[in-house]
Amino acid sequence: MRIVDVRTHVLEAELDEPFGWSFDSTTKRGSCLVEIEVEGGLVGWGECFGPARLNAAVVAAFGKHLIGADAMAHDAIWLTLYNRFRDQGQKGLVVTAISGVDIALWDLKGKILGRPVHQIMGGPLRSRVQAYATGTYRRGSGDPMEYIVDEVRGYVDQGFEAVKLKIGFNVAEDAALIRAVRAAIGKDKGLMLDANHGYDALEAIALGQAVADQDIGWFEEPVVPDDLASYREVRQRQPIPVAGGECEFTRWGFLNVLTTRSIDILQPDTCAAGGLSECKKIADMAAAFGVRYVPHVWGTGIGLAAALQLLAVLPHTPPRHTPREPLLEFDRSEHPFRQAVLASPIEHKNGWVDVPAGPGLGIEVDRTAIQRFTVA
Ligand code: CA
């Protein structure tokens, strides 16, 4: 089936309450959705991670390579786009834009074949996934020691078995907050840390050593993503497993991470690292290197559905009677159109989320909502 049209939708919405993390803050949410139509009128949907208007411009530049191409040939299309733009596009916006196109093509393929993506990829290995709550962003006012402790108690009340805490502000204050959160959620719940690369290596090592007794699941983005030597230092000089990868791209980027043994837990974003095609390859590479894979997930229900399709086919590492299962990152921070873009929202039940079982990504998009949040 030939591609006849590629459309992008740039969605934005103001937040009721701005929120911040180690190096920035935001007053709004934005997303670039990709809609690809084939002859006969069938459409597939994808999403690009990162600045929405810039992603839309890059997808528009792909146009002549997409129109008229066979929509089923997504690997051929992936390679064509990457090879044409590779010289200036090995990381960042070119690859996030390819990701949205690739996810839309997988959605189309599933709809054409009448099967969910995870079946076409050879799964499922699992039909539901345990979610952890992402939140604990900084507010414009109030004491984080109070409002973040309240927030994580809420996640435990909702049934989440694990929560991720934002740090990367100040080692001593972060360590105090980690202890307060651990005390609030109790010793049986999972607690992970995310510094959003707010530390240098020495600070990250000091933080990891300071909270070594707090049973931390992982220490995410301790340092800037381009500095793998510092990643390795943090791995070697403090005891918490190091996670990262939401700012890394493609099989070649992750090959470098894997061969240098820089990260314990890989976190590629399906809407950023190259889409479903590329992230399946990266996941298989990670398994071959004995490295865990927990996808980074951010954005709307379309990106969430893509992540769930991938989670359904992630290999068991190591294989055993009751294998370790991958976790779903479930963003709980304010997002006016995360679920609104879907006709049926993807929600958790007691901290578990079902993998969508319908054709393609398994979702139906609400066009009225998309129009409502689309910026001119
Ligand atoms: Ca993160």
Structure characterization notes:
- It is built from 12 helices and 12 strands.
- It has 376 residues and is an alpha/beta fold.
- The protein folds into 2 domains: 118 residues, 2-Layer Sandwich (Enolase-like, domain 1), CATH 3.30.390.10; 236 residues, Enolase-like C-terminal domain (TIM Barrel, Alpha-Beta Barrel), CATH 3.20.20.120.
- Strand 6, helix 7 and strand 7 form a beta-alpha-beta unit.
- Helix 2 packs antiparallel against helix 3, helix 3 packs across helix 10 and helix 10 runs parallel beside helix 11.
- It is globular and about 60 Å long.
- The two termini are 31 Å apart.
- The relative contact order is 0.16.
- The model has no long low-confidence stretch (mean pLDDT 97).
- The structure holds calcium ion.
- The site of calcium ion (CA) has 5 residues, from loops.
Give the distinct bound molecules.
calcium ion
* Largest sheet features: 9 strands, mixed
The CATH superfamily name of the largest domain is Enolase-like C-terminal domain
Q: Measured on Cα atoms, how large is the radius of gyration?
A: 20 Å
The general outline is globular
Order of helices and strands: EEEHHHHEHEHEHEHEHEHEHEEH
- What quaternary form is this? single chain
Strand content: 15-25%
CATH hierarchy: architecture of the largest domain: Alpha-Beta Barrel
Q: How many β-strands, per DSSP? A: 12
List low-pLDDT spans: none
Helix fraction, binned, reads: 25-40%
What is the number of helical segments per DSSP (H or I, 4+ residues)?
Answer: 12
How much is the average pLDDT?
97
CATH third-tier fold name of the largest domain:
TIM Barrel
Please identify the structural class as seen in this structure.
Answer: alpha/beta
